[in-house]
Every structure is written in structure tokens, then in C-alpha cells.
Write a structure and sequence with these properties.
The strands form two sheets. Strands 6-5-7-8-9 form a five-stranded mixed β-sheet, sandwiched between helices. The chain has a four-stranded parallel β-sheet with strand order 2-1-3-4, with helices on both faces. It starts with 9 loop residues before the first strand and ends in a 15-residue tail after the last strand. It contains eleven helices and nine strands. The protein is an alpha/beta fold and 264 residues long. Helix content is 43%, strand content 12%.
């Protein structure tokens, strides 16, 4: 338990990856309607970067990361948090097993994204940019379809290759190159007829603010959506933060500024 003088409200399971959890906390802070330090959410970040790879486990059909995820949830419960955020989309494959052992509410990132999407859209085709593990898990497909959104799956194998490359580049700290790869994936999404692109991996959220030209696509940032859901659950007012696209229609020129960048 924490000292009696500290009353934690939000627990964050971070490190999945580290830049993604840093991005989540930055966005949580930026969208909180506050003018003083003490108006922000009392929170603790438990960073567990050595937790086994989530996508590898899902594709191989085993629960390798589950024990470590349960341990993290138990630790945060011991600290007395009211709710838990996991800024890693793929980890939500084990959401049911984690909620079963948690006193604190675990906010599902997929539910947060649906709520964020509904803030600005009532119809349209949505393409999901995510890890192969998240796509196999299927929780986004289930939730978006149940909410009445039509899903768009680009036929080109290059699309997922670009997404995978962007995710890996963020994990390696190559943000500019990751933004370039994400931009190329968005070009494919737009050509496939999608109206909306869901950044369904929190590594992609890291480059969200760098997507200056999305050729009319609406971009949904899962980290920003999760941050907004946390504030709503805990009773904190939210504001729009400049440079943090969520349900923002970002129109620009015909070509991406990184069009000529070399593919990593």
C-alpha cells in the first residue's frame, strides 16, 4: 500500500513499449483541463519492458505474457489505484483474464477507441493499423462492427508490411522513419477506400502528431482515446490539446512530405 498521504487513482502498465507509454502519459497530461499541478490525475507508471512479446504469443497460440501481466495488475491493485490503463493494444487480448483478478477497473482501449470514434463520426469505412497479434485477437473488429462501422481491409500485402515496419522503427527510436512508413500505409488505406484510419498500436500513436498530411483521412489515435477514457472514468475534465490528433480530419496537399524518404 502507498503512504497515507498519497492517494493514487490511475495505474498505468507501461513499457509495452517504453515510448508508447511515455506518449500515453504525455497525452493524458496534455488533455487534462488543469492550470495547477494538483489538478492532474494522481498516477503511477509501472514499466515492465521485459514482459514477453504479445504478438509472438498470440500468433504462436500461447499465453506467455499473461503471468507477467497478471503480476503487474496485482501490483497496481496493491497500490490502491481506482482504475488501470494499459497503453498496449495487443495486451488487451488477455483483458478477460486480467479483469478477473483485478479489484480496480481495467479500461479497455478498444472501448475507448469506439467512444472516441463516435465523437466525430457516425458512419464510414475504418481501416485498422495494428500489430498482427491485435488483428488476430479480433477485439477491434468485434467492437467497431458492433458500433456500426464498416471495416476496410486493404488487399495489398504491402500495407501490413508498412505497419509492421513503422511499429518496429518506433521501438528502435527511429521516429522520423516510422512516420514515413505510417504515411505510406495511410496512402494504401486511402486508395482502398477507407474514410478513417485507426492507429490501433500505441507505437503508431507516437508518430500521430507527425502526420501532417493524411489526404482527408480521419485519424484515430488509440493512446489519446485511452487517455480521454481515463479522465472520464476518474471524473477529470478533458480539453483538446494542440498537436495531439484524435478524431481530427487533417487535410493537406496531394503528396506526403516524406514521399521520397527511403524505406527502412
Amino acid at each position: 500500500m502507498t503512504d497515507q498521504g498519497i492517494s493514487l487513482q490511475l495505474g498505468i502498465i507501461g513499457g509495452l513499449g517504453p515510448l508508447a507509454s511515455a506518449d500515453f502519459y504525455l497525452k493524458l497530461t496534455r488533455i487534462t483541463q488543469a492550470v495547477r499541478d494538483n489538478e492532474h490525475v494522481p498516477a503511477v507508471i509501472l514499466s515492465v519492458p521485459q514482459l514477453p512479446d504479445r504478438t509472438e504469443a498470440i500468433l504462436a497460440g500461447h499465453d506467455g505474457p499473461l503471468a507477467s501481466l497478471k503480476a503487474a495488475v496485482s501490483t497496481l491493485n496493491t497500490l490502491g489505484v481506482a482504475c488501470i490503463a494499459i497503453p498496449c493494444n495487443t495486451a488487451h487480448h488477455w483483458y478477460g483474464q486480467l479483469t478477473a483478478i483485478s479489484r480496480a477497473e481495467i479500461i479497455h482501449i478498444g472501448d475507448a477507441v469506439v467512444a472516441e470514434t463516435r465523437r466525430g463520426l457516425d458512419r464510414g469505412q475504418v481501416a485498422i493499423l495494428a500489430t498482427r497479434g491485435t488483428l488476430v485477437s479480433g477485439f477491434y473488429q468485434d467492437r467497431m462492427s458492433a458500433a456500426g462501422f464498416e471495416l476496410c481491409f486493404p488487399a495489398s500485402t504491402e500495407f501490413q508490411e508498412r505497419v509492421d515496419s513503422a511499429i518496429g522503427l518506433v521501438k528502435a527510436g527511429s521516429i522520423a522513419e516510422a512516420a514515413a512508413e505510417t504515411g505510406r500505409a495511410l496512402e494504401i488505406v486511402r486508395s482502398a477506400g477507407a474514410d478513417t484510419a485507426l492507429l490501433g498500436c500505441t507505437e503508431l500513436s507516437v508518430v500521430a502528431a507527425s502526420l501532417d498530411d493524411t489526404n482527408g483521412l480521419v485519424v484515430i489515435d488509440s493512446n489519446a482515446a485511452l487517455a480521454r477514457a481515463c479522465l472520464a472514468r476518474l471524473g477529470f475534465a478533458a480539453q483538446e490539446a494542440r498537436g495531439l490528433p484524435t478524431v481530427s480530419e487533417l487535410r493537406g496537399h496531394d503528396r506526403f512530405p516524406w514521399q521520397s524518404a527511403r524505406r527502412a
